[in-house]
Amino acid sequence: MVNLTPPGAEPHDLELTAQDVALIGEADLIVYIPGFQPALDEAIAQEAADRSLDVLTAIPDQLEGHDDHDHGDEDHGDEDHGDEDHGDEDHGDEDHGDEDHGDEDHGDEDHGSEMGIDPHVWLNPLNMGIIGGEIASRLAELAPEGADSFATGAATLEQQMQSLNDEWAAGTAQCTNRLLVVSHEAFGYLAAQYDLTQVGISGLSPEAEPSPAKVAEVVDLVEAEGVSTIYFETLVDPRIAEVVASETGAQTLVLDPLEGLVEGATGDYVTIMQANLANVQAGNGCT
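-> structure tokens emitted (287 positions)
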């Protein structure tokens, strides 16, 4: 297996070398998410269109991306989330990505993804189980002699992801604040799964610089809603999150979107997501 994004690199900014393109042309299977890394999309279209797996096609509930929204008229104070059952919740008809927080029209804005879809599907653990099953199926087609092994691995992954989902559901069932204020909007699937509301300072692309008006809007919301924590990421400059925190008296904590690995990282998906849960519990007053 080859990961085209090297440790320490911000994956949105991936630039492929000639050697990378050659590897894509030789690969038996390319697993990717369209719109997340445009350079990879282009190389796949040219070199491996018939040997690629777009994992978005396996995810039943996709969220539309957005870069700007108005939380000013939204009332979070009286929401009662305590008795909601998240286990069997169907998010398919909910539109968390394009929430209408005012009268603005999102139709013409740049959503940061070529498809207009939030690509960060892996931040819902149940989606990871689905993706594992799809990869196992494609590998079984390529190497039928390993089909049983692939199926066993996929089943193990699905069980791990269900357990992780249960941890998150229990760990976020009771929180004093359900607003998740993040440096960029990578956490829509996570928020939707656990009945949190994502508020991004930047949009889907972490490189997009928010306007002063947007920063001021988030500052006002943080103060109005009593938000105590602003979350920043491992591979992105925390400056914007720190600006909002300093203006509101909030603390900052890491919320890792698992877009790439930090140099020398030793954790895996499960342990990093467990660390994320611990920070959300601390930052949002979850018991």
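Residues 67-115 have pLDDT under 50 and may be disordered.
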